[in-house]
User: Fold these one by one.
Assistant:
Number 1:
Amino acid sequence: MAKKKRSILEAATVLFAEKGYTETSIAELARRTDSAEGTIFYHFKTKADLFVAILADIKEGILSEFDTYMGTCRFENGIEMMEKVISFFLYLAGQHEEWFLLLQRHHPYEVARENEECRRHLATLYNTLLDLFEDAILRGREDGSIGDLPPKKTALLIFSMVNGLIWLKSNDLYDTGSLYQELLTSCRRMLIPQPIENTGVSSC
C-alpha cells in the first residue's frame, strides 16, 4: 500500500474511533494528514468506501495477530488454550485501542445492513474469533479439561464476557485490568467439569 494511502487510512481509523462516522469530516482528515481532499478521494472514492477499507484493515490486523500468536503458542490442554486466547484477546485490545473502539460503535453494524462488503468483513472477523473459543472448548472436551458443554453457545457466552470487558475499558467506564483474574476464574468455573456430589441418598 502506498505510503500516503496508509497514512490516510491510519489517521481515519483514529478519527472514526474517537468521533464516530458522522462527526468525522474529510476536511479534518485532510488537515490531519496534510493532504488535499482530492487526494483522499483519489485513494477512496467516497467516505463510505474509506470506512469499509478501514474495517477490512482492522479485520486483517486482528486476524493476522491471532494467526501469528496461535502459530507460535503451545497449549497443554483445552482450558489452557482458552485462558491464553482470552489473555491475548485482552492484550490485543490494549495494544490497538482504536480498532476495538471503532468496532464497538454503532455505525459499522448500521452500514453492514446495506453494504455486503462491510457485512462480510465483520462476519469473517467475529466468526474467526468465535471459532478460536469454540476450538478450545472442543479440545478441552476431548482431553477432559472442559466439561460436556455446547461448544458454540458456550464460546459465544465467553466471547461476550471478554468483549464486554473490552467495551468497558475502551469507553473509560471501568478499570477492567482489576477484573482479569475474576474473568479467568469465572470461565474456569463455567468450563471445568464439576465432580458429582454425593448427597447420601441411595437409588432404589
Number 2:
Amino acid sequence: MAQYAKDTSVSCERSRAEIERTLQRYDADNFMYGTSSRQAIIAFTMASRQIKFILELPDPQLREFTHTPARGNRRTESAVYEAWEQACRQRWRALALVIKAKMEAVECGISVFEDEFMANIVLPGGQTVSEFMTPQIEQAYLTGRMPALLPMLED
C-alpha cells in the first residue's frame, strides 16, 4: 500500500511549523505542542473548543528500523536513527495534511467544524471525545445495546 510522504525530506519541525501556520490562517489560537520519544501532541483552540491531536511515533527498536529490508542485516546506530526519523517525518507530513484538509473542508462548507474535529475535541475531564466514546461504542457492539444515558442511576 502506498504511504503518503514516505520519502519526504521535510523535517518534523518544519511540518509542525506548517501546522501552526495553517491553524493560524483559519483563526485557531492558543496553539501548543509537545513531544516525547513515542508521541507528539498538537493542541489548539478554535470555535470555543479545545482540540488535541496525539501523533503516535514509531518505536525506534522495531525491526523495520534496526535491520535492512532486503537481507535483514543489522543497521548501524546512525542508520537506525535515519530510518526512524524518516518514519517520523512521514507521520508529521500526514498530520499536516489531515489538519489542512479538515480546515479547508470546514472553510468551504463541505463539513462543519464539530463534525471534522469531533474525535479530537477535549472534554472538561481532559479526555478527547474519541477517548471517551470508543469504549462505549465497543461495548454497544458487543452487547447490541446502547450505553445507559445516566449509568450512575442503573440498578
